[in-house]
Design goal:
Largest sheet: 7 strands, parallel
Number of helices: 7
Strand order of the largest sheet: 3-2-1-4-5-6-7
Radius of gyration: 17 Å
Structural class: alpha/beta
Length: 252
């Protein structure tokens, strides 16, 4: 049911963390995967790991906050694979943290560039590609459960992650008639290099808040990526899929 043989997926920020986890699931399901990342060394290591699973994987150096860099990487991706069928706009980050009253305009702009404008640029490239080919497509953005919850000293992060869920709903309506589905994944606390660099007290609190009593593992990202890339999700669009072990619904 979830055989992705012949499918080509693009995953930005695919050389580590959540992006590499999603790329792993896609490769396991038979997809060919293009990963974008800023570090040529990390890209090469990710490709090597994915090739051990099987399938075809290529990496491309790209800084998604630079529109020209993304455009060049997209052109290289299509030249290498011929086309793409799904686009996972996963690259992003915590942005500038700090007390709300202390954040200057440059701090807000930097976080917006990283978590909103980069998604818009990547989605536009993929959408134009499909419209030109009169082809179906899947757009997926990695948002965060922070789009639903408040986090102190992280206003920029919460703002941008909520913003892309609004983008998803708008694009789902606009692009639905073109057979392009648009969805967001909202992960909770999942063990990555970045998340494990947070205070232990915060990690313990996330574990207590999860209905499952656990924090997420990287492999928890694999299945949802495969589902959203597959034809089985053709009737799902405009949705924000929460993957947080029940963190966002637990009251304590």
């Amino acid at each position: 049911m979830f055989d992705l043989g012949g499918h080509v997926a693009l995953v930005t920020g695919g050389n580590g963390g959540l992006g590499l986890a999603m790329a792993t699931g896609l490769v396991r399901a038979g997809a060919s995967v293009a990963i974008w990342g800023r570090s040529e060394e990390k890209n090469a290591a990710a490709v090597e790991a994915l090739q051990q699973i099987g399938g075809t994987t290529r990496s491309f150096v790209a800084d998604v906050t630079d529109q020209a860099s993304s455009a060049a990487a997209f052109e290289e991706t299509v030249a290498a694979f011929g086309h793409i069928d799904s686009c996972f706009a996963n690259a992003g980050g915590a942005g500038v943290r700090g007390a709300f009253v202390d954040l200057d305009r440059d701090s807000w702009t930097a976080t917006n560039d990283l978590n909103i404008l980069s998604v818009i640029d990547t989605f536009q490239l993929a959408t134009r590609h499909w419209l030109d080919r009169k082809a179906k497509g899947k757009l997926v953005v990695t948002s965060s459960v922070a789009a639903l919850l408040g986090l102190p000293n992280s206003a920029g992060y919460c703002l941008t992650k909520a913003a892309v869920t609004g983008l998803v709903r708008s694009l789902a309506v606009e692009l639905g008639p073109k057979s392009i589905q648009v969805n967001a994944i909202l992960p909770g606390f999942i063990e990555t290099e970045m998340s494990l660099n947070t205070p232990k007290a915060f990690q313990d609190a996330c574990r207590r808040r999860a209905a499952s009593g656990e924090i997420g593992k990287l492999e928890d990202m694999e299945g949802i990526a495969v589902y959203l890339a597959s034809q089985q999700s053709n009737f799902m669009t405009g949705q924000a899929l929460v993957l947080d072990g029940g963190h966002s619904i637990f009251p304590m």
